[in-house]
Amino acid sequence: MVARARAGDAEAWGNLYRVYAPAIFRFCRRALPTREDAEDATMEIFMKIRDKLDQYDTTRPFTAWLYRVAANHCWDILRRRKIRQDKETDDLETLPLAHPDPNQLDQLIEKRTSEEVRKALDKLGARARMALVLRYYSDMSYDEIADSLGVRRAFVGVVLLRARHELRQALEGTGAMAAGGAR
Amino acid sequence: MSSMSSPPSDRERAGQQHLDEMTCMLYLERQLERARALEVSAHTQICDACRTLLRAMERESRLLTRAMLEEEEPLPARIATFQERVQRSMQWVWMVAFGLAATAVYAMYTGYIEPLQQGLEQAGFGGTSLMSLLIFQGSFWKGWQSMLSLVEVLALVTLGGFLVMVARKRFRRGSALALILAAWCAAFAAPSPATATEFKKGPSIQVAKDETIKGDLYATGQEINVDGMVDGDLYVWGQEATIRGHVTGDVFVFVQTGRIEGQVDGSVRGFCNNITISGDIKRSLMTWAQVIHVDSRGSVGRTVTSFSQTLGIDGKVGGDLFVFNQTTRINGSVGGNIDEKGESLLIEDGAEVAGTIKFEGEKDPTVSKKAKLASEVQFTHRVKHREEFGKSSVVWAMLLAAAFVLFGLVLFLAMPSFSEEAVRAAESYGASMGLGVLVLFAVPIASLIAAVTFVGLFIGLSTFVLWLIALYAAQTVVGAVIGQWIMGVTTDLWGRIGRMAVGVLIIRVVTLVPHGGWLKLIVLLWGMGAISLALYRKYAPPKIPQAPYAPPSAPLTPAGGAAAV
After folding, report:
1. What are the DSSP E strand ranges found in B315-465?
2. pLDDT per position as a tens digit, A71-97
3. How many angstroms separate the CA of residue B527 from the nearest CA in chain A?
4. Contact (CB<8Å) A138/B561
5. ipTM of the complex model
6. Which of A136, A156, A171 should be substituted to probe chain B, the one whose Cβ sees the most B Cβ atoms within 10 Å?
7. Is-contact B346 B327, C-beta < 8 A?
8. Around A175, how many Cα atoms within 13 Å sit in the side-chain half-sphere?
9. Tens of pLDDT along B8-60?
10. CB within 8 Å: A62 and B55
């Protein structure tokens, strides 16, 4: 299908779009602040995909490339808006990570629904949310996440862990879970 | 990645340190080296706390993945149909059109606008922009002082629009528009801090001779008599109005018969069947009427601008006379120049004109020998061409087209989401045109009815203003659709604006041809209907959206990273 689309087959391109548009829309929906942003971004991503289709390396999985393009596009949008260009990059090495109480964390996760998690995701900073989306929606490797977010590979784990902490705080409404409970 | 160490004091158990959270996460995500992973695995066999943490984090990962993969909302219709529209896109046409448009703009500027600017500068008008032209023309309407206020308001509106545009992504759909409308309403509704506004309504309205109204007065009725004083502006809407008293501000008259017998310190503007000036207008007079008469007792301090069938000047005009009439008769004094375009000009015995007289008409002017004229009448014989297509008309057509494009540009920038909705609505031709007929004719009538009834004055005027804006916006909406047909769909805002500009130019050119008025009417109906439809869709009660087709049930193998293609 991709090969035919690359060759200019309109029908193949249409099929490609029909198959992947829902997933890319969902990706954008998770990564960007509003539904309108996600709609715009989805269409823009497919315009890019169509223009760049001949650059796609057919030896690699198509979906990985697709998500890569989508991730870069969404991250560009967020960066342009300077949303929460927070201190993560500078403080990554020195920032102490608090340890949660395992039982409390277990209870927190036990009680939460998917919808609550999605709402909590909306409250996260751009980088944290994007990191979680890249990892847990797109299943990107740490190398790919580092490349997309423009951080060193060694910091990807920290970014993800910090994102999880932010998420827990958003889920709880307080910072109790990440408040350094002793074990 | 090395694991982060934890404070040892309360974290020691059986001589072995607990696992920290980072290590647990990296273990779960298979990012640890094999040896370290085995250590972690062995530790969790004997440590309940770490096992609990590991299990909780694993569940957290699963919860995250599940939450992200769930399809809680259907694919928006515009995304589902986007691909079909994209297929029609022809980027090369866009490039060519852009090049041609740039060339045309350059040619228009060097060929017409630049010489026009030079001409204006030579004539003493320092302003060189379209805005200055608008302001210059606007000064006829309300005077220079008011125009300065207007400029301030325009600046504020522009600033507001810019801020809304910058912040629009933070609003949910429709909120930005609602905010703008609310701001407009607030701006219109907010009473002036310095003066109060009074409303009078009834079959017969009287401001008695000894009565003084502080602030503006809005009067609507069959017969309106102002014998007293209005210390502000006077707005009159009715059948017959006579002003014998004193108005310190401006007078706006919308009546069948109007008489100004008293004193107006400001200007008089109006739409009337006939209006007679027997009193004293300190500033300007500008009217659209069948008959305008400044009688022998009447005087206008400054300019008279007239759009009428018959204009008679028996009194005194301090400034210039700009006349677009069928017949003009002058038997009084004019302190400035006379510039008339019409059918006939009659200058009688009692006429005194201090400035030049330019008359462009179909008949030779009739000038009495007893008239005191500073110079002879400069007459240009005008031959009526039904389908005149000269250089001048082309220039104006291009200027108008540019103005429409500019208007569309502002709309698209200020309301990108709504303009897109309107363009999409315009693609439903039948519904748009049907609704367009209703809106184009019914709304002005409804707003008129609302305005003449006292309670609905503000609503009536606001509706009418919105209707006028929509009337202008109609061509830009239809232009955007036409541009889209030719150059394909784009999601880029400037791409959409470019398509709108191309479409508007096409409409302007097409409507120049003979009987193009019918095409213009169709465009207006279509565009007005589309805007109304978009408004309806935006504010209609929400319906459960339905996806136009069933999306694939399984997502793009997010856990595996690749799907068979």
Report:
1. 316-317, 321-330, 333-334, 338-347, 352-353, 357-361, 366-367, 372-373, 377-381
2. 999 988 888 776 444 444 444 445 555
3. 24
4. yes
5. 0.82
6. A136
7. yes
8. 6
9. 444 444 445 778 888 888 888 888 888 888 988 888 888 888 888 888 888 88
10. no
